[in-house]
Write a structure and sequence with these properties.
It contains 6 helices and 7 strands. It is α/β, with parallel strands linked by helices. The protein has one domain: 3-Layer(aba) Sandwich (Rossmann fold). The chain crosses the membrane at residues 21-46.
Amino acid sequence: MRDVTHHPETGRTRRRGRITVWIGRALLGALLVASLVLGGTAFRVWQVALVDHRRSADMIVVLGAAQYNGDPSPVLRSRLEHALELYRSGLSEHIVTVGGNQAGDNYTEAQAGSMWLIEQGVPPGAVVEAEVGSDTLRSIRAVSEVAERRDWDSALIVSDPWHSWRCRTMAEDQGLRAMVSPTRSGPTEDVRTAYILREAAAMLFYRVMHASADVTGYGLG
């Protein structure tokens, strides 16, 4: 005759097994949802980057990037050249250069941009320096303060393509009517995928935390 006695240890083992399976499924589901959210956000970053929304605005905004003792880096120069083209096209009478400096710098990013534009023939009175901003959100807030002081409400923002959606969203959240006109000589192909994913993650962080999550590493600002 078989012994049909139920051992407590066997029951506990089965319960632990079921719990382990449930936890595994929950983690897999969470990873799947996270992947879908990140993928959808990355697609939106890519989608907005493809379109130039240039329109007339109260100001053309050049978001800062590295400068070397007053000489714009290649990334910043690309943005300035693009802003100069928009200015000469008559889309705005004012250009706002944005960006602070690092410890020991003689110039801010805003000053370097302003000097370059004036050297190209833009009247000094047409350039406004916003010498604040070590990340995108601080830069956009500095632009919002300039707009408030001058009673402006629209901005045509110049940055790199993959940065367009995030800076436009931040500007709109600051009450500006924002458009983006991205450069077309920005991030090279070898860093494009990494930059899109970085921007997608930064955008999700901003949506949740209402704070900036800028990460340096590619020299892209």
